[in-house]
# Entry
Amino acid sequence: MKECLFCSWKDEKEKIILENEYAFARFDEFPVNKGHVLFMTKRHVKDFFGTTLEEKNAIFELIEKAKVMIDEKYKPDGYNIGMNCAEAAGQSVMHVHVHLIPRYKGDVANPRGGVRGVVPKNQNY
# Structure
């Protein structure tokens, strides 16, 4: 296996903003909005469907903590939580990761449909 970007990130302690036994979090290097955070498992696993229950719970525990931090610092108006599983779904790094994306009023013309926008023709209903 070629070196995994996110596996190497777990050793960059200065960039980790939250961590527990099974997962860690850091700010996205190409943020969609201010405060965009990524959550990854410490164990290399391709996508969410390959994670253990402990890893899933660890990620969601960190998401809750990150939300508190982001609320205090950036005061967003909402959030999107998402993950891409497999190349067909847009996954570009084959190591499970979850996005917490703060949303701000006016950041897009019409936010209706939210994550449904991954298939733009079906976003509005």
In short: The first helix runs from residue 5 to 9. The helical segments are 5-9, 53-74.
